[in-house]
Each structure stands twice: as structure tokens, then as C-alpha cells.
Design a protein that fits this description.
The complex is a heterotrimer.
Chain A: H1 6-18, E1 32-40, E2 46-55, E3 58-63, E4 73-76, E5 81-84, E6 86-91, H2 120-126, E7 130-135, E8 143-151, E9 169-174, H3 177-186, H4 193-219, H5 232-241, E10 245-251, H6 254-267, E11 272-276, H7 284-290, E12 293-296, H8 314-320, E13 325-327, H9 338-347, H10 353-358, H11 362-367, E14 385-389, E15 398-404, E16 407-411, H12 452-456
Parallel strand pairs in A: 1-4, 1-5, 6-7, 9-10, 10-11, 11-12, 12-13
Antiparallel strand pairs in A: 1-2, 2-3, 5-14, 7-8, 8-9, 14-15, 15-16
Helix pairs in contact in A: 4-5, 4-6
Chain B: H1 3-22, E1 38-47, E2 53-62, E3 65-70, E4 80-83, E5 88-91, E6 93-98, H2 126-129, H3 136-141, E7 145-150, E8 159-165, H4 171-174, E9 175-184, H5 196-223, H6 233-242, E10 247-252, H7 255-268, E11 273-277, H8 285-291, E12 295-297, H9 313-323, E13 328-330, H10 341-353, H11 355-361, H12 364-369, E14 387-390, E15 401-406, E16 409-410, H13 416-424
Parallel strand pairs in B: 1-4, 1-5, 6-7, 9-10, 10-11, 11-12, 12-13
Antiparallel strand pairs in B: 1-2, 2-3, 5-14, 7-8, 8-9, 14-15, 15-16
Helix pairs in contact in B: 5-6, 9-10, 10-11
Chain C: H1 2-14, E1 39-50, E2 53-63, E3 66-71, E4 81-84, E5 89-92, E6 94-99, H2 122-125, H3 142-149, E7 152-157, E8 166-172, E9 183-193, H4 205-231, H5 243-246, H6 249-252, E10 257-261, H7 265-278, E11 282-287, H8 294-298, E12 303-307, H9 324-349, E13 354-357, H10 363-375, H11 380-387, H12 389-395, E14 412-415, E15 426-431, E16 434-437, H13 450-456, E17 458-466, E18 469-480, E19 483-490, E20 497-498, E21 500-505, E22 508-517, E23 520-530, E24 534-541, E25 544-554
Parallel strand pairs in C: 1-4, 1-5, 6-7, 9-10, 10-11, 11-12, 12-13
Antiparallel strand pairs in C: 1-2, 2-3, 5-14, 7-8, 8-9, 14-15, 15-16, 17-18, 17-25, 18-19, 19-20, 21-22, 22-23, 23-24, 24-25
Helix pairs in contact in C: 11-12
Classes of the chains: A alpha/beta, B alpha/beta, C alpha+beta.
Chain lengths: 458, 439, 557
């Protein structure tokens, strides 16, 4: 692949979209030399008039006036800004289901099973400089399913090709109003925050008992032994206890955040990031002490009681108290301007440029355990890069090109308007969908039980 | 204390406060004394919007009205002086599409007053239902949005929207002087269960219903003054709109529906019409321009209306309409985050509209569209003193808003969100309830 | 008098012999239903023995349920009924790779009390792989006759249900008295689909995938346990007799294949993922979006049954001044349509053989869709292979069916013109060596009963009293090319729905239709009594154990 001309590669990708013989499913990597840009590295300051060379999907050199290797596409980025591809730590795009909401604990399900590479939202996110997302299970269950870290390789049709190879396993927990609302509707536990804690402790305790049984079974040397009941749900919970799975917990209220810290301390679980965490700022010292991260909105509030006492200064307070903080979108609309959302931490709390940009690059990478691969522009890291006209923290910034693994997936100048990968032959031409701000919160999708009266009556 | 001393003291106070103010930490009630008196804002760059920019100028405000604006304005001796050296002054921004004061918490029905039961309820007054103490109001105004059109929702004719200033202890103190009935124009959107024919049929039916109601309303408007006219509040409200006493805000988005609405307005001959939403306005911009109908559009931060549209279609929409000659106002469409209005305008500016026109879209255009062009929307003598002072371009994300004036009253530059910041930036007690000492 | 008595006595003696099925040879039959011979010869016909092997002016002899001879120089048995095939075309009987033909939807289940637990009862959750479609078979099912009329002789029928409804069986599409007489081969497959339980675990794809893995793995452990215990039970806890898990054993051993109902590309990918992880034999069934997968299918042992449910040809807008945008969008849509149709030929050319599944296709559309495919590039031989030899291979009956070779089962289709020609009509179908004849005159024979013609056909105004108010609309019954069809419209602007499983017998009208409630398919069943102007019955919904009254009156015109 090294010797491929970038133009040929783009053409190949275009053909992929329309040709009859689909190419073999594989992750494509590319080469590109981005020249003479203002490079925001995140870890090593901002470098003026600097080149970044990507070969075979990895950043191989950062320097001045680099020589262009044979056959590598050049991008003249004079006057432009280069930053690491943005990472959205809370997303529900590119998935066909969000919640398996029929049970309160579903650790066995996995979002990897429902990845949808054909979602147009993927392209729109690329057009906002985003290169990787954390596709989360919804928040209908106290313990939801495993989430999946994806790279936005728009154009592949095999869901497998979107996986961020080597990314650690992550899983979704949820506290507060969302899981209790579902339980209240069905007449089961947990209907209160007390019940949520009880369910967490039950689940972990049961997992410990399960693990013990299986450990005994494996240690048993006799030939005539019978295995205990196998249960994927328990298997996953055991993996969490053993530290093999990063927990991302949907939460809002300070007291429930604090509760989870204590439950996790009791069970020896250390890898934890709170999602949304609108009131995390109230327990920032505790979070910092535990080493938990927080992935928050820039300014969403008031849509539920548990977010009524939010403040847009959340990210700034957390950062100033030493908590690894990221800003996420939880929305197919907001993901397109996460760079602007990050800039709000400068308005609300005066974070520096570097601190603000880390909220959407290195910090989410850390929270997803992929900071060895992405999140900054350093030699050896993946060629996931976004090029902007205008400094990314300026509201007037325009993302113009986005690369994943050195392959260009978004180019504002040359991309056609219609970027759909798949067209339904029976669709009508003028299908209009009006954006509804209230429908953005997808965390509860699929969770409500079907209401007969509702659909018989439109 | 003589006026000169007062002046100097104010200067000092301001300079002392500036660093804190940069973080929006000015406490409540501090400088609220200067309410009904005369005051001057000086030494700042003034963006009048309608008469260019004054590099270094002064504004004199008295009893809520702007008495003078200029580079060489003499400051009356009895005026309190606010020296905003290096600051920029703008007309207060106007959000022409919110539910401020009508909704508190989305998930709690008891806290929502924007939606009444029934399809035909034009007489429902949003103004009286506004909660002047809604938490979202301080949160919004400290960002420089001083005025909002707050609108009822739901059904065909949800009610009467009203323009309010975001400062006042009663709805009447807040009322800015413009109302309009809202019409949710029949739309061609089809649910997942309908075929296109089904959806078209449903739309035709809704249009028939709309015409039936307005026919009745026109009749009512003719006979209204007679002695024995039956009591029919719904018709009264519509008659008021038909006579032009209040505006007609027609919410319509898809291109097909906009065309249909244009036809409807033309057939019925209404003049006091404003289109709201208009997310596909760019597709039929010529037609809208020819009809001379102004437009309130937004949120600009929306996804495109069609899967096949360019990703930035919604960002480009206001600019394209403005370039076709249409008068465009921009709304946030939000309630608790109406503070993001300037960013909606900023994206419109970035993707084709340009900063100047985008600024107009959230100031003078919005005012004019609502019939308040004489009193709001720009910094001109004779207009009301809705102003804010910023450290720079209010569209730029990290700009701080130093002060906000509504009707000449200085707004407390605090909100619960700011108070929480102050309390929790360095929480006390922190991790340990009592400080850990060596011995 | 004496004569009469003698005749009566004769009759009385004969009586015991009259209650014998017409299947048995050489019996007296007072109904006159039995056919005089079990031997048939079609002479001088164009015989397509197998795809690509055509014999002109040839003869085929079917006798005692088997093909006994084929060729140009064949001697005709003396007891044969001779059919002059001068204008006729003979093909091997078609084989339907997967469908619900002959099966009847079971009664909806009551919603159990312990629904919202992590492990709801298996039958409600739809986890019944131990069940067999045999329990759902109904010899009077309309679908048997309508599929036979198209030339289908064997169907791999799978049960109705949710995630794991049970095993499918191969049935012959013949007229029988008892459902087990239909069986060609029992329980040949494990049928599964991405269909969640309403309101219960597993509710959607997430839960279904996890549950599948869990069941398979647990079955593996159970199997080991059972083997251990069977060898020597001493000191070993007794294994749980879990029927659902036991149903997986042959799948684990790969003696039974998994037929996964996967319409979309993403569903197919998920099935393939499970196969990669767990290791079982997989047949992707009723596949519509196959072209995405061609490359990967070429390199695997996964088998395919392509759907016959083709999209409608896109209609171009009639505007004279179409914008560039509209032109481009229409082009893309046309491309997508062409893509869909061309995949059938491409699969064969790439060496990926497939049969057809008619599961998602209305029987009215099958012939037309086959013609469409042939018109758009699929060769007739390829199409025939999918209907015969390839299908037989996939179903494991390649040795007994799929071609007109002597010794194979007596299944054949006889048409008035080459099958894929538009005007061709099916004149005879032989199933299991029995002849079925069809009226090929211009006014095609009607399958619609007289009763239906008199009472049912036309428009009915219905109303359903839901707690939320009255739902009204119309039912429109028509005789569509000999098949009774029904359409439901809604006054509330809801969708037009096709009626499924529409039957009208002895005044009882029954049909069902499906709603797509936000991604999940929910079925509503309507049943009741119909007199000449009035219908009274009830609507019941799978998801809720409740019935709502339904009435309808015949519309005046």
C-alpha cells in the first residue's frame, strides 16, 4: 500500500462505494505528507511551519521541510492548523440498536454486534474533524452492555473494519433516573438510587461467587468433573472485577457518583470514567483521589431533574482539580462541532488552549485506553489527523480535511454533497427529516416497552 | 460624595472588578444601584449595527432610553460613568425562537407550560404563563442575549407568542411589545408507518382544516363588533391576527411545505406573516423573497434535512437566504441554552453569511421582524437601552461578557451556574473535612 | 325386490373398503377421488432434464412416485396415462429453499407475570429450538396450493416464532389428509432469526446475539456433562434435561445446519460473525443485500438462499424541469436498483451457488420477479439451477430431487411455454408422482371459492374499538389472478397493509398483518364471522393478551 498514489487511493475508495465487485475486507492505511502547517501536538506544544509525515498509517516524522518520499501525496497546509483527530467518548451513531432494555443487567451484550458502517452520521462527524468514537450501549440498564471503540473509516461495509483494533474493552453502567424509570414502568427493582446501589453490589457479589466456582472447577484435577453453569453475563462481570474492562458509567448526581466510587473501592475495581457527570464538579476532589475520569457535556442541562443543578463550568472545575476530563457529544449533531464545544471551557472557566483541546483529544484517548495510539501528534502514533482553516478553538474554524490511518476520508473541497453509501431502491427522492433538538438524547432509545395504544393511534 | 468623586470611585471599582468579571464572578446586587438614573458607558468600541462602528465612543442612557451615541459625546455631570476601556458594546442579542420562561425541566410535565391540550388554541397567552424566575433566564442573559420570542407549541394553532426582555419581576415588566399567533403549518412529513400517498392525503386534510378555521375566523372578524356576537375566544384571537393587530408566525420547514405556505398566504392575502424554522428555505429562497416574507430560521446547529444533502446545508441556509434578499433572523430554538444563540449566528457567518449580516440576524433583523425595529436591535438614539459589553467579538467562544443592560437596568452578572462555579472551584471542605496537620 | 336386496348387500359388503385413502393403489373409492393410474408419460415434449441439459421431442415417464425413464427413445408402459407434450415444456419440480409454506401461525402467547426478569420463560422469549415445524403444519393451508401452482414441489418449511422457533422440515407440496404425509424429511435444520420478544429478553439484536452465544456455549458444556454421565454416572450430579440446549447438539456436531433468516447485509454479517466465533454450518436465508458479501462468501463454506423479493422499479418524476439534484438522486436510486438485480447473476458467475427462499415474497410476485431477473441478466439455466439443483444440494437432497433423472422423486413442472417466458402457464405439476392439473385457459382458474366470491369480495368498512377511540378504514378483498387477496386501509392516514394468511371458510374470516413498531415487527390477527353484510370478530395482538372487538359492514358500492 505504501507506494500507492493518494489520488489513486481516493479513487479506489470512490470505486468501493459504487462498483460491483467489493474489495476484500481489510483496514486500509495510507501515506500523506502534510506540509507547513501550525501543528497543535497537544503533548509538545504548538509548532509553526511544521510538516507531518504519515507512512503506512503511522506518523513517522514531524519536522521542518521534510522531503516527500516517492509516491506520497502532499497536502499544502500553509496557513492552516493541524491537530490530532477528535475523539468522541460518548456516541450512539453508527449503531442499529442502542439499548437491550429488557433486563436491568445485560453485561453480556455488546455494541460490536450492532455496528452500522452505513450511517451518514459517520461522514458528518468526519466533516467535524472526528476520527474515533466510543459507541456506547444506552443508559436504560444499571449494567448495560460492552461498548465499542471505533475509527470512522467511512466507506467500509463490513462492521468489522470499523473496529479500533487493540482498543481495550469497555462497558456501560448507568445510575439515576434512566434505569429507575424503566424499572418503575415495569414494576421491578431498582426504582430508587438505593436500589441501584443494591443491584450493583448484588451483581458483583454474584460474579465473585461465579468466579470462585469456576476457579475451583479449573483447579480440580479429577477427570470426572462437571463444569458449573456457564453464563456470559457473569463472565463479563468477572472480567470487570479483574480489571480487564474499563467501566464508563452514565451518571449525573454527585451522590450517585460518590456511591459508585465507594462500591468500586469495595470490589477493587479501578478503571472508571463517569459519563455526563453533570454534578461531578461537586465531588471533584474525590474523583481526583480515586483516579476516575469524567466525560461531560459542555453546557447541556435542565432536561431532567438530575441535571437541573449543572454548571457549564463543570469541565473547568474538574480540570483544575486534577480530574482527567473530556467533552463528548452524545449526539449526531453535536459531534460535528466538538471543537467548538471544547472552546466553551475557555469561556466557562478560562482553560488554556492546550487544556481545552486536550478535552477532545488526549483525554478521551486516555479514558478509552487508546492514548498509546491516538490523541496527540507524536511520532509513532496513528495518522488520525484533522486539518482546520482557522484555529480550532475559534468559532470561525472550518474543518477542511480529515485523515484516519493516513487515509483521507473527508475533503471539504472535493467531496460530493451526497455521501450516502447505500440507497434504498424503493426510497422516495424527497425524504425530509427535520432536526429535533429534543430527540438528540438517544440514551433511552429502544428501552421503552411497546405501547399498543400508542401505535394503534399514531 | 460629589459627582467627581463618584466618577473616580466608579472608575476604580470597575478596574478592580475587571479581572473577576472576566470569569463572570461579579456577585449579585453589587452595581444594581444605577437603575433609573442617568449613566454613561464610555471608552469602548461601539457596534451600532445600523450606523457603523465607533472606535472609541460613549453612550448616554437615561431612564432606559438611549439619549446619545457617538465618538465625542459630552457626558452629563449627573451621569454615573462606566469606563469600559478596551471593551466592545453591542445591542442586546435577540433570540427569536425559544420557550424561555415556559419550560423548566423537560422530563417533568408539571414544569412545562408551553403546550396546551387541543389543536385550535390560539388564544393561549404565552406571556402570562412566563415564569420570570425561571433558572434559565439569568443563565441566558449573562451571555448577552437580552430579549427572546417565547412561543407555545403543539397542535395546529398552539397559542400567542410574545417577545420578552430577560429582566423583570413580572411578565408585564418583561414584555417587550410584540405578540403573534403561532401556526404549525401542515407538513408533508410522514411517519414510518405511512406511504407517501398516505402522508400527502393527511397533509391535504390538515390544510383543509386550517382553511376551515381561518374562513370561520374571517367571518368572525367581520361580525365581531356586533352586539350579540357569540363568545368565541379562539376566533377572537384569530381575528386579531387577521386584522393585523398581532403577527402570524408560520412554522414551516420542508421546501414543499414552504411553497404550500406561500400559496396559502397569497390566497388569503395576509400581510403580517413571518415564516419560522425554514430549514429548507435555501431551496425556495427566490419564492420567499418574491413574497416579501421575513424569516426566522434555526437552529443553525442542525443536521441537514435530507440524507443526501451536503453536511453543512443547515449552516449555509441563513446566508443563502440572506443573499437572495430575504430578511433573516436567527433563532436558537432552545430554552435552557438560548445562550448559544451567538454560536448559531457564528456558524451562519462562517459558512457564507458573513459576520456583519449574522450580527444583524440576531439584533436589528430580529427586532424588525417582530415589529420592534423602532425600539430594539441597534444602538441608536431613541431606542431602548438593551446593551451588553464584551471583551471582544461576542461570536467568538471565549469572549467574556462584562455587563448586560436591559431597558437601562444593569443585570446582575450572575446565575446559579456561576454561583456553583464559585462554590466548587475550590471546595471547602475539600477531600478532608478538617485540614490535616503535621502533629 | 330381490335385485334390489342383492345390490344393497353388495353395497354393504363393499362399505368397509370405501374408507381408504386414495393414495393406496388398487382400492375401491366411492368418492371417485383416486386417480386411475400411478403411471404417467409425457411424450414429445421439450424436456429440461437439468439446467443446461435439454432434450427435444423427448419423453418422461413417471411411475410409482419416481421418475422411471427419460429420453428420446423411451418405451411407454401400458398402464400409463399418456400426455401429448408436443407444445409442452417439462422441468424438474422446483424446490423452495426456505419458507413458511404449509405452516400456520400458532396462537399468541399470554404475557407471563415474570416477564421482566433476566430469564423470562423460554417460550415467551421465543427460544424453542427443540420445537418442530411439524406441529404447525396444516394440510389445508392455502400456501401449499398456491406454491404448487407456481411449480414448486418441495418446500423447506420453517416454523413461525421469534428468535429460535424450532427446526424446519422438507415437505412435499401435495394434497394430503394428514400433515405427516407431507413430510419428505423431518427436522433438517435449525431455523433462527433476529426477532426479539416484545418487552422481554432478548428484545433486540443486542440480546439475541448474546443469547445465541450463551446458549451455544452452555449446550457444549451440557453435552459434555451428559456424555460423562452416560458413560458412568457414579458420583456425578445428574445433567439438566434442558430441551433447548439439547437441540443445539447436532448443530455443534455440524450434522444440522443453521438456517439464519437474514434480509439485510448487516443481519448477514452478524450471522457470519456468530459462525466465525462458534463454528457451525450456516445458510444465509432470504438474503436481499447480498452483493456486499460476495467476496467473503466466495472464500467460505457458507451457503446462501437468495430472496425473491425484488424492489419495485423506481419511478422517475414526471417534472419537465427536473433540477440537477433530482436527476442525480434518481440516478443513484436507479443504480441501487440495478445493483440489486445484477447480484443474482454475479453470484453464479463468481461461483457462489444459491437456492431461492420465498419467505419474504408474496406468491403473486414470484413468477414476475423470476422473469425480471432473467430479463436483467440472470441466465435461464442459472435461474433454473437456483430453483432445482442448487437448492437440492443446499438442502441435502441432491440424490433424490432436483433433476429429471431416472430413480429420482417424481417431481416435475409442465408448462405451456418456456417457464421464464411471460405468457407461459403451468399446466401440470407432479408431486411425489401424483398429477395435478391446472386450467390454463385465458380466464385462469380461480382458487377463490364460490363462497368468497359471493359474500366476501368487495369493499368493507371496518371499525376497531381501541381504548383510545375508534379506528376505521376499509378492507378491500379481490380475486387477484385466482388468489384471494386483501388490503387494509386506514382513515387515520396509517399505512395500507396486505393481509397475510387470508382464509375465508364457512363464514369464518381470518387474516393477519404486520406492523413495524419502531424496528420490531408486531402482528395483529383478526378473526370472526362474516354474513353477507356484516362482520363481527376480534383483533388480537401478539404482544398483549387482549382482544379488541372489530366490526365491519359491506360498503354499498
Amino acid at each position: 500500500m505504501n507506494r500507492f498514489d493518494m489520488n489513486k487511493l481516493s479513487l479506489l475508495i470512490l470505486l468501493l462505494l459504487f462498483c460491483t465487485q467489493p474489495l476484500k475486507a481489510q483496514v486500509s492505511t495510507g501515506d500523506v505528507l502534510i506540509k507547513n502547517a501550525t501543528v497543535i501536538t497537544i503533548t509538545d506544544g504548538t509548532l509553526e511551519n511544521t510538516d507531518v509525515l504519515v507512512e503506512d498509517g503511522k506518523i513517522t516524522r514531524i519536522g521542518n521541510s521534510l522531503r516527500t518520499p516517492n509516491g506520497v501525496m502532499e497536502v499544502d497546509a500553509t496557513g492552516k492548523y493541524v491537530m490530532p483527530g477528535i475523539i468522541d467518548a460518548h456516541s450512539h451513531i453508527a449503531g442499529t440498536s442502542i439499548n437491550e432494555g429488557t433486563s436491568q443487567v445485560t453485561a453480556e451484550v455488546q455494541m460490536a454486534d450492532v455496528v452500522d458502517p452505513l450511517d451518514i452520521s459517520i461522514y458528518r462527524a468526519l466533516a467535524g474533524g472526528v476520527t474515533a468514537i466510543h459507541l456506547l450501549h444506552g443508559s436504560a440498564n444499571v449494567i448495560g452492555g460492552e461498548s465499542e471503540t471505533l475509527k470512522l473509516r467511512y466507506g467500509v461495509t463490513n462492521p468489522q473494519d470499523m473496529m479500533f483494533e487493540g482498543a481495550p474493552r469497555t462497558i456501560k453502567f448507568a445510575l439515576g433516573e434512566n434505569p429507575t424509570r424503566g424499572a418503575r414502568a415495569r414494576g421491578i427493582q431498582p426504582q430508587s438510587r438505593m436500589g441501584v446501589e443494591a443491584m450493583l453490589r448484588n451483581s458483583f457479589r454474584e460474579a465473585q461467587i461465579y468466579k470462585q466456582k469456576w476457579d475451583e472447577y479449573r483447579a480440580d484435577n479429577s477427570r470426572r468433573k462437571v463444569a458449573p453453569t456457564y453464563d456470559r453475563r457473569m463472565e463479563t462481570l468477572v472480567d470487570i472485577l479483574e480489571g480487564d474492562v474499563l467501566v464508563h458509567c452514565h451518571s449525573y448526581r454527585a451522590d450517585e457518583i460518590y456511591m459508585l466510587l465507594n462500591v468500586f473501592k469495595d470490589f477493587g475495581i479501578e478503571k472508571l470514567t463517569f459519563q455526563h457527570a453533570n454534578e461531578a464538579y461537586k465531588v471533584a476532589p474525590e474523583l481526583a483521589e480515586f483516579g476516575a475520569g469524567a466525560s461531560v457535556f459542555s453546557d447541556w442541562w435542565a432536561y431532567k431533574l438530575e441535571v437541573y443543578y449543572s454548571t457549564a463550568y463543570n469541565a473547568a472545575i474538574l480540570t483544575n482539580n486534577g480530574v482527567t476530563t473530556s467533552i463528548n457529544s452524545d449526539s449526531g449533531e453535536l459531534i460535528r462541532h466538538l471543537f467548538h464545544e471544547a472552546a466553551k471551557s475557555q469561556k466557562y472557566g478560562g482553560l488554556t488552549d492546550e487544556e481545552a483541546l486536550a478535552l477532545i483529544t488526549l483525554n478521551p484517548a486516555k479514558q478509552l485506553g487508546i492514548d498509546n495510539r491516538v490523541g496527540s501528534i507524536e511520532e509513532g502514533k496513528d495518522g488520525d489527523i484533522a486539518i482546520f482553516e482557522g484555529h480550532p478553538l475559534s468559532v470561525y474554524a472550518i474543518p477542511v480535511m480529515t485523515f484516519v490511518d493516513g487515509v483521507k476520508y473527508f475533503d471539504r473541497e472535493t467531496d460530493a454533497d451526497d455521501q450516502r453509501l447505500y440507497v434504498d431502491p424503493e426510497s422516495t427522492i424527497e425524504v425530509v427529516q427535520i432536526f429535533d433538538a429534543d430527540e438528540q438524547h438517544k440514551c433511552m432509545q429502544d428501552a421503552e416497552a411497546i405501547n399498543l395504544y400508542e401505535f394503534l393511534n399514531n | 460624595m460629589n459627582p467627581a468623586m463618584k466618577k473616580i470611585l466608579t472608575h476604580i471599582l470597575l478596574i478592580a472588578f475587571l479581572p473577576l468579571v472576566a470569569f463572570g464572578q461579579q456577585s449579585s446586587g453589587e452595581i444594581r444601584q444605577e437603575n433609573s438614573g442617568k449613566f454613561a458607558i464610555t471608552n469602548a468600541k461601539i457596534f451600532t449595527v445600523t450606523n457603523g462602528t465607533i472606535e472609541n465612543g460613549t453612550i448616554i442612557v437615561n431612564k432606559g432610553m438611549i439619549e446619545a451615541v457617538g465618538a465625542d459625546v459630552e457626558i452629563p455631570s449627573d451621569a454615573t460613568v462606566y469606563d469600559y476601556q478596551g471593551g466592545e458594546v453591542y445591542p442586546g442579542m435577540i433570540d427569536s425562537g425559544t420557550k424561555l420562561g415556559l419550560k423548566e425541566i423537560d422530563s417533568i410535565d408539571e414544569s412545562q407550560d408551553s403546550r396546551e391540550f387541543g389543536d385550535i388554541t390560539p388564544q393561549m397567552e404565552a406571556l402570562t404563563a412566563v415564569n420570570p424566575n425561571s433558572e434559565a433566564i439569568p443563565v441566558t442573559r449573562v451571555s448577552g442575549v437580552t430579549t427572546a420570542l417565547t412561543m407555545p407549541e403543539g397542535g395546529l394553532l398552539p397559542g400567542t407568542a410574545a417577545t420578552i426582555n430577560l429582566f423583570g419581576y413580572t411578565p408585564d415588566q418583561m414584555y417587550a411589545g410584540s405578540k403573534g399567533i403561532v401556526i404549525n403549518f401542515p407538513n408533508s412529513r410522514r411517519s414510518w408507518r405511512q406511504t407517501q400517498e398516505q402522508a400527502d392525503k393527511a397533509r391535504e386534510q390538515a390544510l383543509e382544516d386550517l382553511n376551515a378555521v381561518f374562513d370561520k375566523a374571517e367571518l368572525y372578524a367581520d361580525i365581531e363588533d356586533a352586539e350579540d356576537t357569540r363568545y368565541y375566544p379562539e376566533m377572537e384571537a384569530l381575528a386579531s391576527a387577521i386584522r393585523g393587530d398581532v403577527l402570524m408566525y408560520i412554522e414551516v420547514n420542508a421546501a414543499k411545505d414552504i411553497m404550500s405556505a406561500l400559496e396559502w398566504v397569497d390566497t388569503r392575502g395576509y400581510q403580517n406573516v413571518v415564516f419560522t424554522g425554514v430549514l429548507e428555505g435555501w431551496r425556495v429562497a427566490e419564492e420567499i423573497f418574491e413574497a416579501g416574507i421575513p424569516v426566522i430560521t434555526g437552529p443553525v446547529l442542525s443536521t441537514p434535512t435530507r440524507a443526501s444533502d451536503a453536511y453543512d446545508a443547515a449552516y449555509k441556509n441563513p446566508g443563502l437566504m440572506q443573499q437572495a434578499g430575504i430578511k433573516v433572523a436567527i433563532r436558537s430554538g432552545d430554552t435552557e441554552n438560548a445562550r448559544n444563540l451567538p454560536y448559531n449566528a457564528a456558524f451562519a457567518a462562517t459558512y457564507g453569511m458573513g459576520k456583519d449580516e449574522a450580527l444583524k440576524a440576531v439584533t436589528i433583523n430580529a427586532a424588525e421582524v417582530m415589529g420592534l425595529g423602532e425600539s430594539l436591535g441597534s444602538i441608536e438614539v431613541g431606542k431602548r437601552a438593551n446593551l451588553f459589553v464584551a471583551t471582544g467579538d461576542p461570536f467568538e467562544t471565549k469572549t467574556q461578557i462584562l455587563s448586560v443592560y436591559i431597558d437601562g437596568l444593569q443585570v446582575p452578572m450572575t446565575s446559579r451556574q456561576i454561583e456553583l462555579y464559585e462554590e466548587f472551584l475550590n471546595r471547602n471542605p475539600g477531600l478532608n473535612k478538617y485540614p490535616v496537620t503535621e502533629n | 325386490m330381490k335385485l334390489l336386496l342383492r345390490n344393497v348387500l353388495k353395497l354393504a359388503l363393499l362399505l368397509p373398503l370405501l374408507f381408504i385413502s386414495h393414495n393406496l393403489a388398487a382400492q375401491s373409492d366411492y368418492t371417485g377421488q383416486s386417480y386411475p393410474t400411478q403411471t404417467f408419460a409425457i411424450t414429445n415434449a421439450t424436456i429440461v432434464q437439468s439446467p443446461g441439459m435439454v432434450l427435444d421431442s423427448a419423453t418422461v415417464v413417471i411411475s410409482n412416485g419416481l421418475i422411471s425413464a427419460v429420453g428420446t427413445d423411451v418405451s411407454i408402459p401400458s398402464d400409463a396415462e399418456v400426455i401429448d407434450g408436443g407444445e409442452l415444456f417439462v422441468y424438474p419440480g422446483f424446490i423452495d429453499g426456505m419458507s413458511n409454506t404449509g405452516a400456520v401461525r400458532p396462537e399468541q402467547m399470554e404475557r407471563p407475570d415474570n416477564l421482566f426478569t433476566p430469564n423470562p420463560p423460554n417460550d415467551y422469549a421465543g427460544i424453542t429450538p427443540e420445537e418442530s415445524v411439524i406441529g404447525q403444519l396444516d394440510v389445508t393451508e392455502n400456501s401449499i396450493t398456491s406454491m404448487r401452482k407456481l411449480g414448486f414441489t418441495i418446500s423447506h418449511t420453517v416454523p413461525y416464532g421469534r428468535m429460535l422457533p424450532g427446526s424446519g422440515s422438507l415437505i412435499l407440496l401435495s394434497d394430503e389428509k394428514a400433515s405427516y404425509d407431507l413430510l419428505l424429511k423431518q427436522d433438517v435444520s435449525m431455523f433462527t432469526q433476529f426477532s426479539g420478544a416484545p418487552g422481554a429478553y432478548p428484545g433486540n439484536t443486542l440480546g439475541i446475539m448474546a443469547k445465541w452465544r450463551n446458549l451455544f456455549t452452555q449446550a457444549g458444556y451440557n453435552k459434555e456433562h451428559e456424555q460423562l454421565y452416560a458413560g458412568n454416572p457414579g458420583g456425578i450430579q445428574r445433567p439438566q434435561q434442558d430441551l433447548a440446549l439439547q437441540a443445539f447438539y447436532p448443530v455443534i456436531d455440524k450434522t444440522k445446519a443453521v438456517f439464519y433468516h437474514t434480509n439485510s447485509m448487516l443481519e448477514a454479517r452478524r450471522a457470519m460473525k456468530l459462525k466465525d466465533e462458534l463454528g457451525f454450518n450456516l445458510v444465509l436465508s432470504d438474503l436481499e443485500e447480498g452483493w456486499f458479501l460476495l467476496e467473503d462468501l466466495q472464500e467460505s463454506d457458507i451457503k446462501v438462499l437468495m430472496s425473491l423479493n425484488l424492489p419495485d422499479e423506481p419511478e422517475l418524476s414526471e417534472d419537465e424541469e427536473k433540477s440537477d439534484e433530482t436527476v442525480q438522486l434518481e440516478e443513484r436510486r436507479q443504480e441501487a436498483y440495478d445493483r440489486f438485480l445484477s447480484q443474482y447473476g454475479e453470484f453464479k458467475e463468481a461461483g457462489v451457488a444459491y437456492g431461492f427462499s420465498t419467505m419474504g415474497t408474496s406468491s403473486n410476485n414470484i413468477k414476475g420477479n423470476l422473469e425480471k431477473l432473467v430479463a436483467s441478466g440472470l441466465s435461464e439455466d442459472m435461474a433454473l439451477a437456483a430453483l432445482t439443483t442448487d437448492a437440492a444440494e443446499i438442502l441435502g437432497i441432491g440424490d433424490i430431487a432436483g433433476t429429471l433423472d431416472p430413480g429420482k422423486i417424481g417431481n416435475a413442472v409442465v408448462t405451456t411455454a418456456p417457464y421464464f417466458q411471460e405468457d407461459s402457464k403451468v399446466k401440470y405439476v407432479f408431486v411425489d408422482g401424483e398429477k395435478y392439473e391446472f386450467d390454463t385457459s385465458e380466464s385462469a382458474s380461480s382458487e377463490v371459492s364460490e363462497e368468497a366470491e359471493e359474500l366476501l369480495l368487495g369493499t368493507w368498512d371496518y371499525s376497531i374499538s381501541t381504548p383510545q377511540g375508534l379506528q376505521t378504514g376499509q378492507w378491500i378483498f379481490t380475486n387477484d389472478g385466482g388468489t384471494l387477496t386483501g388490503l387494509i386501509t386506514s382513515d387515520a392516514g396509517g399505512p395500507d397493509n396486505d393481509m397475510n394468511n387470508l382464509t375465508f371458510l364457512d363464514g369464518n374470516l381470518t387474516f393477519d398483518f404486520d406492523f413495524d413498531a419502531g424496528g420490531q415487527s408486531v402482528q395483529v390477527i383478526i378473526t370472526g364471522d362474516l354474513s353477507d353484510t356484516q362482520f363481527n370478530g376480534e383483533a388480537s395482538v401478539e404482544a398483549f393478551s387482549m382482544s379488541i372487538p372489530v366490526t365491519a359492514t359491506k360498503s354499498p358500492n
